[in-house]
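INFO batch 0412 | record 1 of 1 | parsing
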Amino acid sequence: MSFSKDFLWGGATAANQCEGGWMEGGKGLSTNDVIPHGKDRFPIIRGDMIVSKPDADHYYPAHLGIDFYHHYKEDIALMAEMGFKCFRMSINWTRIFPNGDDAEPNEEGLAFYDSVFDECLKYGIEPLVSIVHFDAPMHLVETIGSWKSRKMIDHFVRYATVLFERFGHKVKYWLTINEINMLLALPFMAAGIRFEEGEDRRKVTYQAAHHELVASALAVKIGHELAPNAMIAADRRMCGNPSAETETTISSLMCRAGENIRHLP
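INFO prediction complete | emitting tokens
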């Protein structure tokens, strides 16, 4: 077996894991900025422990990452040296819309990703971009409950539209939302979901998954309108060994999201 000459060998990161620069360039507070290392990490990412901002008692890995924000040129040069033809990365939602519902996008954030994409293309590396990778504006978590609310769909679609309009001529390959199904296991990390006492966790998480799937389908539709030659998809993977019930439910939700899109005006 041989690979075609245009096969895209490469590597992957996510903004929340690598960027750092957590409060630079006009960026707002993101869910990942309040997730610490240590004993409180899992209670927070499962949505059991409610936090709203970082404190002095914890270390927050996302605040620095690998400092890609300041060293992306050297990092991309190393990727080129290794022979990369593709670089999967994500855009930090709060670098573009600091609060998620801002009147205008943050130009400094847009310019940063323009420069990242230009650096990739200089070396013949195709960016493969996740619009959201385990990332949500904390302002939307606090005000509408993040993906608990159907209002989140409109905020995401507006954000995605700005990205397609700005970067559609530079980016051919897009993923809408990373591993949607992971909100069932790690609701706050994956989707900014926090649980209040007495809430039906199962109902909340599946409703949030439905909202994400509808938003993803709408983004694909708009993306193809604004960038007709782009390849756009959602990313659904399950870590571990998912139950048949979980897989069946997620598949059903994906079908329903598609039906919703077909009946939109």
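INFO post-check: DSSP finds ten helices and five strands in the chain.
INFO record closed
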